[in-house]
Amino acid sequence: xxxxxxxxxxxxxxxxxxxxxxxxxxxxxxxxxxxxxxxxxxxxxxxxxxxxxxxxxxxxxxxxxxxxxxxxxxxxxxxxxxxxxxxxxxxxxxxxxxxxxxxxxxxxxxxxxxxxx
Length: 117
Prior knowledge:
Layout: E1 5-9, H1 13-25, E2 29-33, H2 36-45, E3 50-54, E4 56-57, E5 60-61, E6 77-82, H3 87-95, E7 100-103, H4 108-116
Parallel strand pairs: 1-2, 1-3, 3-6, 6-7
Antiparallel strand pairs: 4-5
């Protein structure tokens, strides 16, 4: 069986490294990028099954990436990871159709559970 591919979009290097370790140890293939532009490039190159998306990417809003998921990644599960507590932003996440949101700091269990949901 082919390993599921996961894209992690987070500008914090330590978070990206931690997520790669968690996901690779669970048998997933993982690509970590730190900006929306890098994510767009990765999405053009190959399809991903799951995308972990930080909301605050060096001053860029993570949800700006959503229109670039079509068509190759239109079936990808998007999981937002954020330290953001602003209710209006969290409501915007829900309104964009994203059902899974993980707050930082997160646990290994939360990351793996998000993929299974």
